[in-house]
Write a structure and sequence with these properties.
This protein has 200 residues and is an alpha+beta fold. It has helices at residues 27-41, 96-106, 127-138, 144-154, 165-180; strands spanning 10-12, 18-20, 75-77, 88-90, 186-190, 193-196. Strands 1-2 form a two-stranded antiparallel ribbon. Strands 3-4 form a two-stranded antiparallel sheet.
């Protein structure tokens, strides 16, 4: 730092520390000094311009009148292939089901084959229902493996190829007991052994 040329340029803050006087000014002081310098130079602050009144906005013109729509003529479809049925007149608001019915009625399309009906016969019994029937007929406690064997022998239920049908049946029986409590069809008499509630 260059040695001070004028004692007035520096202000003493402590014994060994000097700070230039210009650095000691805060923002307000600097702004006031700038304003004073401009006033002396004759370039005083420019007064803010008074805004003129905003131009008048013209009122929106009325929208042009929309003529009323004439009723739409129904659409007429003609079969492109020779030998088709009569032309079909389809209204504007028909859905796909109605259009398909019109196509079938005009002979343009054959009716779709419906879903195949379930084969007539007795409803397949679930493993849980079959186990309840077997336990009710046995009148003694049985385990899951014995129940699976008895259900297959009696023809009530056969495993569709599962690896552990006895574990699946045991879990289903436990779930029913937990969910229905006193209304369950099974009563647990020992670990992995159940009896029918009706037989108890």
């Amino acid at each position: 730092m260059a040695p001070p040329s004028n004692e007035m340029d520096y202000a003493m803050t402590s014994k060994n520390d000097t700070i230039p006087a210009a650095d000691k000014m805060n923002a307000k002081q600097r702004k006031a000094a700038e304003k004073a310098r401009r006033a002396q130079a004759g370039a005083g602050p420019v007064p803010p311009a008074i805004p003129a009144a905003p131009p008048a906005i013209p009122a929106p013109a009325a929208p042009p009148a929309i003529p009323a729509a004439a009723p739409a003529a129904p659409a007429v479809f003609h079969c492109p292939a020779p030998g088709c049925g009569a032309p079909i007149e389809i209204g504007a608001l028909l859905g796909m089901a109605e259009i398909e019915q019109a196509l079938i009625a005009a002979g343009w399309r054959a009716p779709r084959a419906g879903r195949k009906a379930a084969p007539a016969g007795p409803k397949r019994v679930s493993a849980l229902d079959a186990a309840a029937q077997v336990l009710a007929g046995a009148g003694e406690p049985m385990g899951a493996k014995a129940l699976i064997t008895a259900m297959a022998v009696s023809g009530l239920w056969e495993s569709p190829g599962g690896a552990t049908p006895d574990a699946t049946l045991a879990a289903a029986i436990v779930r029913e007991i937990a969910a229905k409590a006193d209304k369950a069809r099974f009563i647990k008499v020992a670990p992995g052994m159940w009896i029918a509630r009706a037989a108890a």
